[in-house]
Amino acid sequence: MADNTASKTKNSALTGNSAMALAMKQIDPDVCAVYPITPSTTVIEEFSSYVADGAVETEFVTVESEHSAMSACIGASAAGGRAMTATSSQGLALMWEMLYIASGMRLPIIMTTVNRALAAPINIHCDHSDSMGARDSGWIQLYSETVQEAYDNLFQAVKIAEDERVLLPVMVCLDGFITSHAIEVLSLITDDEAKDFVGDYTAKHPLLDTDNPASMGALALPDTYMDFKHVQSDAIAASKEVVIEVGKEFGKRFGREYGLIDTYQLEDADVAIVILNSAAGTTRVAIDELRAKGLKVGLLKPRLFRPFPHAEMVEALKGVKAVCVLDRADSFSGFGGPLFNEVRSALYDMEDRPKIMGRIYGLGGKDYTTENAVAIYEALFDVVKTGKIDTLNDYMGS
Amino acid sequence: MTKKSKAKDMPLGGVIPKGGNAHDYETGGWRKFQPVLDSDKCTSCLICWVMCPDSSIMVEDGKMVGFDMEHCKGCGICAVECPDKIKAITMIDQEESKEGGCE
Fold first, then answer.
1. Best mutation site among A215, A240, A349 for testing chain B: the one with the most B CBs within 10 Å?
2. pLDDT score for A4
3. A220 to chain B: closest CA residue
4. A10-254 has which fold?
5. Which CATH code fits A261-395?
6. Distance to chain B for A233, nearest Cα, Å
7. Minimal-distance CA residue of chain B relative to A308
8. A16-67 tens-digit pLDDT
9. Looking at residue B100, what DSSP letter applies?
10. Which of A52, A223, A318, B100: CA 20 to 30 A from A328?
11. What's the confidence (pLDDT) of residue A304?
């Protein structure tokens, strides 16, 4: 029996990048300023076809660098438009200066970040060094395990960013090549559903409103600068609630609900892996193998990394005896990766907190296999048995 | 969690939501050198008014009448641009010009 309230879904087989280009087409932003870089290039290549075919109204700006791409998005957003872009790796690194300006000016710009390693050595494959490098830039960061999640996240990103309680830029991260170039069957929403879900964007002080002139990007000296940052900090902390609301609304409309974290077999688990993006899928397969042997293993996958879902993490890991946090980026602090440090800090005030270790995996596209995940779970069971962690942090497979 | 900011009335993202308010912000305190007008030499050609990067040349009824010292930063462009045959504006060191010199 067909459910009339449900979305008229259509299944399609698309690469991650094609799905992101399609989502951008369905959102039909006012301005898209971009510079191509592997592995995000095909997002823009396909979106430019939609522009050339007249399928969107978007003003497509081809700029001379990613620094300019973000600058043009900032200008477009300040003018009152909905602005979007996409990048990877060195491109995101080149945007670095402007990322802070976008968030500090409270501009709801949307960016697809196709995760790729940073040079040197030069490498075009997946790791999270690029988006982790931007983790303190004031952007909300959503991570995506699958093509479906990446596609769904982009619509939600628009709604989160433009909510008047938030007004901050959002990046949607997906794994380079693994998710961006692999074809996956996903459920699409229609153009009308997409437009209805994201709605219209009305800026409060658009620069193009010449009857009400405003200045943006002004100087703030020691008497006021810190207040602006405090207000911005409150806004990103409060955005968690909006991420939850928008995830629920998306679920209500299209049948796929999203929260701040996702878990798999975690409820009764003795040991757990915490991991971002596509590697969570690999871990699920390892969990099925081990559960078949009666071993209580589980997964926690943060969907939201900025702001960090501390409280949800503590709640989800209650009763777990040992945790391994897997990072696809190093923070070069000599004390593990960024996700490890965040999770370990989040659990500090927990009574009977689990033992926690960190492993860095998959840098520069190095494979993460089910065997790797199984080995981690075995090591975690050793920690539970002995009550001791031999090596707190390590590089996996090198 | 940090305590929430009390600065709720701060304009979002540092936007200045109105135009024409640069006048409210006094920048004359940045000045080291100060322009001095010799009214006997001045022909009110108003080249200084055109060239001043701020709006610190005061004009009444088409005549140059002096400087807005709340905004003049003492850059000296007016003194340089005043025509060679006239040279009605000179720059003097503000501190030295004070009676008794620096305090």
1. A215
2. 46
3. B14
4. Rossmann fold (3.40.50)
5. 3.40.50.920
6. 9
7. B1
8. 999 999 999 999 999 999 999 999 999 999 999 999 999 999 999 999 999 9
9. T
10. A318
11. 98
A76: distance to nearest CA of chain B, Å?
15
The predicted structure's pLDDT at residue B95 = 82
Per-position DSSP letters for A174-196, written without gaps between them: EETTTTTSSEEEEEEPPHHHHHH
Using CB atoms, pick whichever of B2, B7, B15 lies closest to residue A214.
B15
Residue A105: its chain B contacts at CB < 8 A?
13-15
Contacts of A351 (CB under 8 A, 6+ apart): none
Domain with CATH 3.40.50.920 in chain A: 261-395
ipTM of the complex: 0.80
Whether residue A234 and residue B4 make contact (CB cut-off 8 A), yes or no, is yes
A239, A159 in Cβ contact below 8 A?
no
CB distance A114 to A88 below 8 Å: yes
CB contact under 8 A, A107 and B7: no
Q: Considering only CB atoms, which chain A residues are within 8 Å of B14?
A: 104-105, 216-218, 220, 228
How many C-beta atoms surround the C-beta of residue A22 within 10 A? 23
pLDDT band at B4 (very low <50, low <70, confident <90, very high): confident
A1 confidence band (pLDDT: 50, 70, 90): very low
Chain B contact probe: residue of A163, A228, A229 with most B CBs at under 10 A: A228
CB contact under 8 A, A224 and B10: yes
C-beta of residue A88 within 8 angstroms of C-beta of residue A126: no
pLDDT tens digits, one per residue of B57-89: 999 999 999 999 999 999 999 999 999 999 999
Write the pLDDT tens digit of every residue in A124-145: 999 999 999 999 999 999 999 9
Residue B103 in tokens: 């305090």
Residue A374 corresponds to which tokens in the numbers above? 């199984």
Q: Using an 8 Å Cβ cutoff, are A140 and A162 in contact?
A: no
Q: Tell if the CB–CB gap between A204 and B12 is shorter than 8 Å.
A: yes
DSSP label of B3 = P
